[in-house]
Design goal:
430 residues, mainly alpha, globular
Length: 430
């Protein structure tokens, strides 16, 4: 059997194992180790050299920062501030949920954490004011996807290391895509409520100026944390790892000063950061080995030739890649889907002349769209787990439909106008 055939057989075996519900990390490692067994030297060196990459240390740092902020309740005031200032708008609480999720994203970088936190805070408040359950839950499920676009995004850190692209530039490009996504969601809410005012009754509650100022004061610590971390990162003061460490230190100081960070919540934050980091590292090492296996077998070059041979038009190629990620998003979590596909798609993207910063942001956006795509939109089931049991999964999927359309519009804009993603990295790099 030729090396190329062995490579394709390995990829097919990987898909079968995942289809049989074998854990993604184990599937990647098994196929890669068997495929690379003749090259024992590679198996001895790649896992260590990859895991020893200094930039990877930013992953547990940013995860710990997010978990500390979450368990210490530092982000709780974001929704309250948005509610007080925006509650009188049509669909004001839904719009406040988008703003709250965007702020939460700036200190967690996790879609699931973002959706879970906002689901507990925002959905009950909307239901109390008789919002349509589909609008209330669909908004929060969709808003959670902003978490992996606005820095610090763990997806971008792992992608940057594998694709050998500057993580800071990915953060900048992702921020632009995240802001565009948030704007599209707000426009969607305004159109929805404009067409059917009954889904979001206007709030009769009023807020005086002292209360408004009080809510702004309440979010100053978390806003200051985000500005310090990312101002230092983008200003060249910190490396990504140093930025994460500074974020952890500031989150602890703020939590202790506000007396919301307890020993129990600190231990829980550290434990969750360790467990999540370990799982990500296993999957990432497996993906790195798979990438080397695909390259050495020649399957990567063969796939690139096939893809480019089918269509020399980059637009048609990106449409095919979009379809692949939307389908994978229905069944796999974003990190798993990205790490399975990058060994195959990165060579194709390079051969087609795609800017890899732009490509990384497009991939992240497509993966996050998959978080609310039926039948297995992960954020939908996260929302289901934290809201009133009477709200069905069908209702939540009904609610996210309008936001899926908004996501597709955003993807079209990002593909048609690459400078939306690239202008900030270019500006910061002179």
């Amino acid at each position: 059997m030729s090396d190329g055939a062995i490579g394709f057989l390995g990829l097919a075996t990987l898909m079968v194992m995942i289809g049989l519900r074998v854990p993604i990390g184990l599937s990647l490692l098994s196929v890669s180790i068997i495929g690379l067994e003749p090259a024992l030297g590679i198996l001895r060196t790649i896992p260590f050299s990859f895991a020893a990459n200094w930039q990877l240390s930013s992953v547990p740092m940013f995860l710990l920062m997010g978990f500390l902020c979450y368990h210490a309740g530092l982000t709780r005031g974001l929704f309250d501030a948005a509610r007080v200032w925006l509650g009188r708008l049509p669909g004001g609480l839904a719009i406040a949920s988008v703003f709250g999720a965007s702020g939460f994203a700036a200190v967690t970088g996790s879609s699931v954490a973002c959706a879970a936190a906002m689901g507990r805070i925002a959905v009950p408040e909307m239901m109390r004011l008789r919002y349509d359950p589909a609008l209330a839950t669909g908004t929060v499920a969709a808003a959670g996807t902003i978490g992996a676009l606005i820095p610090p995004s763990i997806l971008f850190i792992i992608y940057g290391i594998i694709a050998q692209q500057p993580i800071g530039n990915l953060f900048l490009g992702g921020a632009a895509a995240g802001i565009l996504t948030a704007v599209s969601y707000i426009v969607t809410i305004l159109i929805w409520v404009g067409l059917r005012p009954s889904v979001a009754p206007r709030s009769v509650e009023t807020s005086d100026w002292p209360e408004r100022i009080r809510t702004l004061v309440g979010i100053l610590p978390v806003v200051g944390l985000a500005l310090a971390v990312f101002g230092g990162l983008f200003g060249g003061v910190f490396t990504p790892t140093e930025a994460g460490a500074v974020g952890v230190a500031l989150a602890m100081i703020i939590g202790l000063a506000q007396r919301t960070l307890t020993w129990a919540s600190f231990k829980e934050s550290v434990t969750e950061a360790f467990v999540t980091s370990a799982a990500l590292f296993v999957i990432a090492i497996g993906a790195n080995l798979l990438s080397r296996f695909v390259t050495l077998s020649g399957a990567g070059d063969a796939l690139s030739d096939i893809a480019i041979g089918i269509s020399a038009d980059p637009l048609v190629l990106i449409q095919g890649i979009t379809l692949v990620y939307l389908v994978l998003g229905m069944f796999l979590d974003p990190m798993g889907a990205m790490l399975i596909t990058l060994p195959v798609l990165l060579p194709i993207a390079k051969a087609s002349g795609f800017d890899l910063i732009w490509f990384g942001v497009i991939v992240a956006k497509l993966l996050e769209t998959g978080m609310i795509t039926p039948p297995v939109g992960l954020n939908v089931f996260v929302i289901k787990s934290v809201v009133d049991p009477s709200i069905t999964v069908t209702t939540i999927f009904k609610g996210v439909t309008a936001f899926l359309l908004a996501d597709l519009v955003v993807v079209v804009l990002l593909v048609s106008l690459p400078d939306i993603i690239l202008w900030l990295p270019r500006l910061m790099n002179g």
